[in-house]
Amino acid sequence: MKKLASVTLRPVTEDDLPLIYERQMDADSVRMSGVNPRDPDEFERHWRETLADPSVVARSIIADGEVAGLALCFRVNEMDTVGYWIGKEHWGRGIATAALAQLVDEVKTRPLHATCSKSNAGSVRVLEKCGFEFLGYEWAEARGRYSAGELARFRLG
Ligand SMILES: CC(C)(COP(=O)(O)OP(=O)(O)OC[C@H]1O[C@@H](n2cnc3c(N)ncnc32)[C@H](O)[C@@H]1OP(=O)(O)O)[C@@H](O)C(=O)NCCC(=O)NCCS
Fold first, then answer.
1. Residue 86 near ligand 1, beta carbon < 6 Å
2. Each residue's pLDDT tens digit, 111-139
3. With a 6 A CB cut-off, is 31 part of the ligand 1 pocket?
4. Where would a tag sit more exposed on the chain, N or C end, judged by fewer CB atoms within 10 A?
């Protein structure tokens, strides 16, 4: 595997959207995250609103010059919540960890919250490595794009 030289964040632009769309469709990523893809209309509406919303921090992750994924901070139920999604071809190189560390450095708000599937060992590890505290598991029914399942909750600060 290629050694990683640099990871930086920059604002998501409209030009990034086709790649984000493709990556949210990836079956392995969907299985891992428990998050189902948005259909084209929903995707278009969601990202139009997201890019226009000053309260959302949406960053593309640039790893060695390539757009490797996405890191975000957005409000869910009054909680500032982080999320990330790395293109499969870039997994296992420390990119999510480096990107989340930079995001939580950029976003000064605390506490920050995160939720992931209990079975998503990679995501759990990324959160732990970035200093998030494990709060516990909870069962979530299927809702919107999210499959039913056991969720792990985390908080930073
Ligand atoms: C989960 C995900 C973000 C991990 O990204 P990544 O860039 O491969 O993660 P990193 O390389 O920074 O790995 C961080 C740690 O997790 C571990 N890890 C990564 N993927 C793993 C997996 N599938 N199973 C077990 N451990 C894993 C790594 O070994 C590393 O731990 P270590 O330093 O102790 O060895 C990526 O697989 C992904 O985007 N998946 C699809 C979308 C998703 O699940 N997003 C999160 C929703 S909450």
1. yes
2. 999 999 999 999 999 999 999 999 999 99
3. no
4. N
